[in-house]
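Q: Is it fine to ask for two folds in a single conversation?
A: Yes, each is treated on its own. Send the first.
Q: Here.
A: Result:
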Amino acid sequence: MTEQKEDYEILPEEFQNFDLSFKIIVIGDSGVGKSCLTLKGTKNYFENYYSPTVGFEFFTFNIKIKDQVIRLQIWDTCGQEVYRSLISSFYRNSSLAILVYSIDNENSFQNLEAWLNEIKANGNPDIKVFLIGNKNDLEEKRKVTLEDAKSFNKEYGLNMFFETSAKTGFNAQKVFVEAANLLYEENLKYKERAGRENKNTNLGTIDFSPDFSTQLIIDDDNMKKKKKKCC
């Protein structure tokens, strides 16, 4: 059974057909609720006990926007320092990073800059970033003000910021709906720009990847083999 909204439709997890697919990485310090938030946002389920993620967990989220079915491939990574070197490869070809801190943990907020540096060092130049303040239900234990978070978001020019609660479900699904909306709009812009460039250069029709962040990689060995066969 699907959930109908005004301008989008959440589709079942087992839905097979899709038009666009985007890779999303969820990052942040250990204990900020990355896994709980992802689980609540994609499956509407909350776990009351804390179990640190080892390595990564994989989720999918299917949504229909206008006439396009979009699949988000969500990689929920561990935040423990001992595993940080293992997750650098997960940034590759990610279209969007969800950077999570906890409003009751000032250290997780102070470490955001270091996480942004990791995104810059390991992600593609076009990667989008959402800043998410989780555990909004712990207002009485708040250490990070809404104003400070908004200032950080503005200073670093991130794409979106809002607070969430994996426990109550506040804005949990919104994280992934907004991610899909942004990537859908960026994909449209990419196709329009590519179409104009194609028209201006009179190159004919070019088949572009639906993922605007996909990188084109040239296999040098194959190129060399082809050259050897040439007269």
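Q: Second one now.
A: Result:
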Amino acid sequence: MKVLAFNCSPKMEDGVTDLILNPFIEGMRNAGADVELLYIRKLKINYCTAEAHCWFKHPGKCYQDDDMNMLYPKLREADVWVFATPIYWDGVTAQMKTLIDRSALPLCGPFYELREGHTRTIKREGWKPRKIVLISSCGFWEMDNFDPLVVYMKAFSKNADFEFAGALLRPQGHWMKPLMEAGQINDIFEAAKEAGHQLVKDGKMSTETLNTVSRELAPLEQYVQGFNQGIQQIFDSMKKE
């Protein structure tokens, strides 16, 4: 199994998203998968300009000369695409949206077809079935903050005729690093690793495992109070500078 994983967080290795992505990748590798991890911020990927060059003039190839030319062969070969993104404002990061736009259009064709009574873009020659996995984190407490993102990724998968294999979602992200340093959330990282192993070996991730990744870190009011106290400390320290 070939896996292409994208960390789409501007914070890259320093973000909470990476804390979940890395053990997930470790679990996939332990199960025998060939995984390549790319940090999108380190790449030069321009916005899609809707020239339709990849549809009509040179099918499957974008006219822009940037790092997408390196990614296209990898995207075509991979059996699993893993997208990891924090939620800043009800959706994917700008980096991830640009990556998806530039990835999807050249890999499909300009014509429509009907699939299950719905208009979809046709699949270009060389298309193959693959799985899509979402990994995301956010600072908010509630799980429903991920709903718009999950709906978007399911729609993307359906339009491309890929399988949405599931999502590892981590709310209450502001407490992750302090609790990690205290050794109190090792079960979350073990669950993320197990999810990667399950996906490779079983083709799916169990609900129990995914629920452990998302488990509550603190009661709602305690979490909000602790977060606000931390923010106030930042303000106070900045005033002293």
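Q: Anything structural to flag on that second result?
A: Two points. The chain has one domain: 2-240. The mean pLDDT is 92.
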